[in-house]
What we know:
By secondary structure, chain A is mostly beta strands.
Amino acid sequence: AQSVSQHNHHVILSEAASLELGCNYSYGGTVNLFWYVQYPGQHLQLLLKYFSGDPLVKGIKGFEAEFIKSKFSFNLRKPSVQWSDTAEYFCAASSNQAGTALIFGKGTTLSVSS
Amino acid sequence: GAVVSQHPSRVICKSGTSVKIECRSLDFQATTMFWYRQFPKQSLMLMATSNEGSKATYEQGVEKDKFLINHASLTLSTLTVTSAHPEDSSFYICSASSQTYGYTFGSGTRLTVV
């Protein structure tokens, strides 16, 4: 069965600390990978996505993610977090066939203290 | 960019009544629309996938007679929660898929059944 797992349920960091959120997927065939952020009271916003090509993907707000096929992983990173990064982060995956749904991980709550 | 409008944003209804939630792609045609449910501090759970003019495909465990999905056009999908009960209270999110814009999410509907 297709699935996405996020290892960290709640991460607490101080401002300027580095961030890495884990994501592993289980999918048959070619997979597209995404990271979304959900700020309190707001809707989902796409941070970055990987379809093919360079496995190191750069997104908005200084985030990046690395696709490691051998590890079935797509971890999200940011060198220096800010208080405004406090939010819920979701890893998601879909097959590369048109019309297939995104499957989400359980999410990671990031709390950044100033 | 692509915009998906979801209405209403909040609704309170009495137990036993039905509620309709609309999801519209405003400036593009969505080949497929998806409906998700999100419980507090949890992930988005896929409920169903709908294509214009055909019956929706429901995920295992989702009651199709309770959660009626109609996808009448390439820009509109509706989710009707029939005979709502307090346990149906949740956050419902739609997503529209297109070749041009990928996945675009609505801002969600907070349903409270009293």
